[in-house]
């Protein structure tokens, strides 16, 4: 018993300690942009683009390396030379050149003087940064859209549960009335059974909606990057319908999706130029300074008295590379890059049409849903009046139980239809805001 008592106390403590936060759409969107993995990864890509740019720039800077080696020659190679150079014409001398031990240490430098590929890469660096910045903005907009749509879906499910709870309470009152009539012999048992079945069906639907609410809330928390155990309530003001004023048709070329494709096209053009740069000659500067030690024993720390001698040597040079024929490989890669550009240009044209379609469809849905909302609001009012009158008539014996149950069903259906119409309007409103490229306005 003590153990059970402690468990109950702990449970109550956790429940009491849980904070239920009022969550507006702006707060939900802002939270998602700060915590959702997609948004964070997009910002990391922007950061990573700076390192990629630094990598490209490094190709235009001097490349300095240090090198060293130690070689032991157990058998020294011999060279056959003409003895005439040593005053012995007509003879051949076999001589061994080198030492048993050789060690070299040095520094080398390479600097690109002219390399068209490097210059093209440097010009593409700024476009690379802008590409990732636009991509991050597009990711933020996608996060906002998902959160907004799920936010309204959660609200609708909660409204459905409120309607069902109200309907359950009203049906329970009718059951009590029928129960009293049945006890006094004024109602049939079949009437009482029907109302009990009605209550059971409503309760079953309530349980289903509760499950849908939990699933929808978990989806919203996931899209926000919020811990699943978090709890929140949605203010009713967020679901009010404010007719959207008609605006001029937006310029689709300012949409993030379009800008991203145009920036991608720009990068493909640079890629084509980088391949074409293989037709150009390259010129680079090389320089090196080395120190070499040779002798019959390990040169390190040895002295001339041991037969080991150290000396330095250096060199400076220019390397010129002129491509003449590459087996048409470069030409093939240039043509492949050109095909990629033309293919992307077709995607850009199609995207412009799609973005324009999104705007027009959103405006159509907005207008249609406004009409539907007004119709459903009137239907809901009429259904409530019918239910009230039918209930009074039933109590006075002027209407049957079937009429009362039908009126309740009609009233509930009208209220659900109104809620769905509002949801459709809100989703269409998000689509319209997106089509105008103003999703970030939901964070203000």
TrEMBL record:
Query: Where does it live in the cell?
Result: Cell outer membrane
* Alphabetical list of InterPro entries matching this protein: OMP_efflux, TolC-like
Q: Which UniProt keywords apply?
A: Cell outer membrane, Coiled coil, Membrane, Signal, Transmembrane, Transmembrane beta strand, Transport
Coiled-coil intervals, chain numbering: 334-393
* Endpoints of the signal sequence: 1-18
The record's Pfam families line, in alphabetical order, gives:
OEP
Main subcellular localisation: membrane
- Family classification: Belongs to the outer membrane factor (OMF) (TC 1.B.17) family.
Q: What is this protein called?
A: TolC family protein
Q: Which organism does this record belong to? A: Flavobacterium chungangensis
